[in-house]
Every structure is written in structure tokens, then in C-alpha cells.
């Protein structure tokens, strides 16, 4: 089961597909906590919007996961991204 499906059915841009591929690296971590990480949108050299689902939604540690996990991982591969924001 792919936990990184789009919240709304739509086509992703090539850049968004790259972000989704990188988020898949974090899928085992999210799943181990009963959660999901969904890409909402991403703009080259702009912000990346994600949505936490399952147990990750509302978790007090989700802000640390966002900044120290998701944002750090994305920046290692794409240094030009803007902020990673929860939607």
C-alpha cells in the first residue's frame, strides 16, 4: 500500500514527483507510527506542502518530524526548496 498518495486525485508535475519519491524514503518511519505523509503541492524553489495523516495528525512530535525529518531530508537532495509546511 502506498502511503504517499495524493489527497486529491490530480497529476503531479515532474518536480512534485521528485518530492514524492524522496518522501517515500520516510514512509517506513511514518508507517511505524501508524501515520502517513502526503504531498499536497510543491513549487520549484518554493514551498513544499505536506499533510500528515493517521496517528501523525495532531501528534505533539509532528513539528519535530516536519523540521528535523522531512525538511532536512528534502534539503539534502534539493537545497533550493523553500519551507516545508503542513497543510
Structural summary, described in words:
With 87 residues, the chain is an alpha+beta fold. It has three helices and three strands; from the N terminus they run ααββαβ. Strands 1-2-3 form a three-stranded mixed β-sheet. A hairpin with a 5-residue loop joins strand 1 and strand 2. The longest helix has 16 residues. The protein is globular. The mean pLDDT is 86.
Summarize the topology.
Blueprint: H1 14-24, H2 27-32, E1 35-42, E2 48-54, H3 62-77, E3 84-86
Helix content: 25-40%
Low-confidence segments: none
Proportion of β residues? Answer: 15-25%
Element order, helices and strands? HHEEHE
Query: Helical stretch count?
Result: 3
- Mean pLDDT value: 86
Please summarize the sheet with the most strands: 3 strands, mixed
Which value, in Å, is the CA radius of gyration? 12 Å
With strands numbered from the N-terminus, the spatial order across the biggest sheet is 1-2-3
Quaternary class:
single chain
**Tally of strands:** 3
Rounded to the nearest angstrom, the distance between the terminal CA atoms is 22 Å
Structural class: alpha+beta
Query: Looking at the structure, what is the overall shape?
Result: globular
Amino acid at each position: 500500500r502506498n502511503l504517499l498518495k495524493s489527497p486529491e486525485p490530480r497529476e503531479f508535475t515532474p518536480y512534485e514527483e521528485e518530492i514524492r519519491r524522496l518522501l517515500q524514503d520516510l514512509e517506513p518511519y511514518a508507517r511505524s507510527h501508524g501515520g502517513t505523509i502526503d504531498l499536497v503541492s510543491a513549487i520549484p524553489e518554493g514551498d513544499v506542502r505536506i499533510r500528515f495523516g493517521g496517528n501523525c495528525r495532531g501528534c505533539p512530535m509532528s513539528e519535530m518530524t516536519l523540521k528535523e525529518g522531512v525538511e532536512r531530508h528534502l534539503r539534502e537532495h534539493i537545497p533550493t526548496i523553500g519551507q516545508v509546511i503542513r497543510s
